[in-house]
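Lay summary. Proteins are chains of building blocks that fold into shapes, and those shapes determine what they do. In this project we predict the shape from the chain. Here is one chain we studied, written as its sequence of building blocks.
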Amino acid sequence: MPAFTTVAAYVPPGVGMLAVGIVAEVFGPHGEAVPGFDFALCADRPGNVPTDLGVPLAIGHGLDRLAAADLVIALPGAGFRTPPAPAVLDALSAAHARGALVAAHCVGAFALAAAGLLDGRRATTHWRFAGLLARSYPEVTVEPEALYLDEGRVTTGAGAAAGFDLCLHLIRREHGAAMANHIARDMVLPSHRDGGQAQYLAAPVPEDGEDERLADVLAWARAHLHEPLPVAELARRAVMSKRSFARRFAAATGTTPHAWLRELRLSAAEELLETTDLPVEEVARRVGYGSAAVLRERFVERRGVPPRAYRRSFTHRG
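And here is the predicted shape, written in a compact code that computers can read:
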């Protein structure tokens, strides 16, 4: 199935303007390197929709726009505790039934749950309302700490800035790492955060010299992916013990050094497979895997297909 090109975001009453800004920025124009998306905001009916900032937002499209979109995103609204109007639920269900990708940002997950689209699936939402989602919809397996959860044609994401992670994940999954990385760079964002990463950190990272050293080490690691990069070496460069480095790293990133490096290597491999004709053996070397066999094993775990099949899918995708 071709990657999505038309995107419709459902705007409920009391919509969060941060959420509107996120989807408009991600799916808006990003120069000639990105073909661009046919993006639209839609509501129950065209007209002014109240927002969380008290400033009405003029929406030019009604629910009919959901009928043609390849990707439909339910945005968070103030009245999420009450199910949307039947017409909205019908539109979301119909989009899913015809094969569209359906996603929800933050408490937009409540709309998908009310439409029955999360029954028997894992889902996440803003951690503050995860318990309410689980109690209200016991057929849904709620995972409150995840940034986003990908269940195939249904994807849910956490609150606030995690909307960027959700949208970039969908672009990465459907259009590849090269496009996702370009858009992330355009917005000055990390190119990828794993969906299983914690929504929030247990303790803030102190603003001191250690933070600057950690940032320098992460930048150095990105430039030296072809090297083994053991944690002991990263800790040495940060002038920390391994234990202190692991603790500071988790506080700053919400994940472990091993998991961060794995995602970085695989993301780099995806981009090389999409944008170059390098042999898989050379791709493996450049991203720090000892052999093509090791890259293949890791790649199948992440993507479900071996590197050569992944490359062919982007070569033939139109």
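What the prediction tells us: The two ends are 9 Å apart (CA to CA).
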